[in-house]
Sequence to fold (371 residues):
Amino acid sequence: MATNHQFPDDFKCPISLEIMSDPVILSSGHTFDRVSIQRWLDAGHRTCPITKLPLPENPSLIPNHALRSLISNFALVSPPKPQPYPEPQALISRLTSVSSSLDSKLNSLDQLTKLSKRDSAFRRKITESGAVSAVLNCIGSSENPILQEKSLSLLLNLSLDDDNKVGLVAEGAIGRVVESLQTGSADSRAVAATILTSLAVVEVNKATIGEFPYAISALVSLLREGKVRERKEAATALYALCSYPDNRRRAAQCGAVPILVGIADSGIERAIEVLGLLGKSKEGREAMERVNGLVRVLVRVLKNGSSRGVEYALLTLSSLCCYSEEMCVEARREGVLEICMGLVEDENENENEKIKRKASSLVEVLRGNHS
Fold:
């Protein structure tokens, strides 16, 4: 039985302070439990217990059906008692056991993924229980694509904590993730790209992932072949990895530039951000110079893109124009100088100061005043 303090005060009788079982309305407009107000009236009182205003000699008691219904249907929501963590070892053993059915493995993965999603303590408990190798084995299994997808989702959760990122790489996560990028379902490939983004938060992992055979080329393939979600995740992973200089060269050599220009033209602005980073490398700039229509795509972003998109379009154009007079000529022909001057002179207080600085710098380059 629910205790009184768990119910709203409006459900309690003003006389007895108990939950009303038969609420009735007095002529004063106030509601009482029938038993309590009848007792008050039987004692000879002819005033409202709350307002003290006089009542008729024979006061009528009108059933408050709406309140009675609310009370009877009230869903009691009490704070959940803290539950002890379920021991992950039993769930993990189902993943490793050769006698476990596919349904049993999928159920274990569902539970582990749900429990680890927002709870870093439980994520730590999973990794300390030796779950990673079992999860990686499931990812590498060709038994069922759903098993791979669910295993990748759990691995993504485990990668959220910085303390786990290097350890996961040491246990061989990159190899399994890259395999999924190459051969997995669309969902598996998207999650695999997201895992690489998460692991690349740690600087040392950026180099390790970049050096791993086929890691960057698999992301470039996903850029080329994937649907919108997979392309966005692949571009985000490349952006995270290409803050490390050697990976810019690798991405350019894998043919990322023309694909990025194409998907940037389709409206995926993250591609512009990756181009901004690739433009810092010689290989990236040379690849961009070979792409017909690149400047027109960047101009469209300057005119219609978000602040971040504009910022990275300016960065890309500056990198290109600083090293190539041909790109300067094309940029001037496409109206980049006038656009940049408009950005510099914009008196809108909300205009991004970083954009204004980059636009001002590009104006100097296009006018030939840069050293």
Remarks:
- Confidence is low (pLDDT under 50) at residues 1-5.
- The first helix runs from residue 34 to 42.
